[in-house]
């Protein structure tokens, strides 16, 4: 085996590593956007398999690194290698469900470290690849090349499956995480849910006194105290910070609220749900029947940290869609997807 590695390690090893890094990075970003169990399971599995698949190429990459170190200026990939290992290690720690300094009690969840390391690795990949004239070759897609790629993919999936099986066999905390990779925190107990915001969206000093409903130039103001109309839904709040909680949410369905004030509802339109902080998300108007403006969770009024007096509940979508401290709902004649995939605030 030692004699085969030097002869085979080289460009194809680097191409394989690059492909796995791109898949891991792409699925990592996509995992933040997908909340439905079926698609989320596939995305998270692909992300984990691509990350662990990097380990399969370590013996070949070690040979490439040794060769590069013999050349002047040939050690530039060391920082990339370290960043990749840190990203992989923090990802494994999150999947296992370690406690102690990596838990929410320390204020810095390991998933945040994993994301930060992943962003740094992506930047180093661009720097490392910049100026290297590696162009696609016809042999990359020949039968042998495709068989190698298939073997690498199968090995990565097998390694990921073995890891998941080991978690279940040992009863590690990671065996109980949701298909999105999140861990349960505060189901049926809102006070136990972590108080988290998207990036720089702060808890406001004071909530909006009324909820504004806007459509076609017409503006209606509804008192916040009139939004608890007994509509309920059980839904899972799945935060991109790595936790989830299922609650019975109570308030008013958005379609019922809009119908009660007789606003103009354009066919194919959307609704902009805007927080008092300026944070906003746009959703299809056709989904209004499944959206809830919640004032209570588990029978208790929402706390300020969880969006009081009213927050949006969006079953099947990740937490950043669940706008807190809602101040305005505006019906717009524009497609819902005409917005950044992730909030910029």
The ordered string of helix (H) and strand (E) elements is HHHHHHHEEEEEHEEEEEE
Beta-strand fraction estimate = 15-25%
Total helical segments: 8
Please indicate the count of domains: 2
Radius of gyration: 24 Å
Structural class: alpha+beta
Please mark out the parts with pLDDT under 50 across 5 or more consecutive residues, or reply none. Answer: 1-7
| Strand segment count | 11
Report helical residue fraction. Answer: 25-40%
The biggest beta sheet reads: 6 strands, mixed
Give the integer mean of the pLDDT values. 87
Q: How far do the termini sit from each other?
A: 52 Å
Q: Identify the overall geometry.
A: elongated
Please tell me about this protein's structure.
This protein has 345 residues and is α+β, with helices and mostly antiparallel strands. It folds into two domains: 178 residues, no CATH class; 143 residues, Sulfite Oxidase, Chain A, domain 2 (Alpha-Beta Complex), CATH 3.90.420. The chain is 38% helix and 18% strand. The protein contains eight helices and eleven strands. The strands form two sheets. Strands 1, 4, 5, 8, 9 and 10 form a six-stranded mixed beta sheet that branches. Strands 3-2-11-6-7 form a five-stranded mixed beta sheet, with no helix packed on it. A hairpin with a 3-residue loop joins strand 4 and strand 5. Helix 2 runs antiparallel to helix 3 and helix 5 packs antiparallel against helix 6. It is elongated and about 70 Å long.
